[in-house]
Amino acid sequence: MWDWLALLLLPVALALLPLSLRLSRTSGLLRYYVFTTLALVFAVLLIGGYLLHWTWTGFRDRPAQPDDGGSPTTSTVALWDWLTVALLPVTVALVPAWLKSRATRRTRWDVACAGIAATFVVLIIGGYRLNWTWTGFSGNKLWDWLHLLLVPFLVPLSLAYAEYAWPRGPDVDLDLGEQLESMVDTPRSARWPVSRPGG
pTM above 0.85? Predict the structure, then answer.
């Protein structure tokens, strides 16, 4: 299952982006049910894969070939592997909600970002200085961190800049998030009229 997650998580997140834009306009109760269901499924898979040894998840006892060409061993999916696979898809999934509410719920987003940053600091200290092997951070250099974080950091940053630099006029009163939502809701023929012969 891990290999399928690594292969499909980002394409699925991109494919579901229009649905995420639509959900951002629905009642909070529907969004709560959707995200709660996803969180419960993910929690069950984690518990089953790591604690109950569900081998079909591929989270533990994965065949691994050492870099030095030695005999094959087994490995466990570490936090670094999860970040490598899931960080960009999660960023893509959260971008619509961030664009929609970052002006009205700025304090909540600031608190969330501060909490994530503090958690990262603790994990980095634990991974590099306290030998928390489950993080998988040991052995990763600055280049690896840049490869991991650069694109997820640039996605919301570039969209925020696009919203700041978006041309506004008397007929353009929507922010970037609302314009993306309107593109999802507007039929293609209304956005790009097709010229017909003799029309």
Answer: no
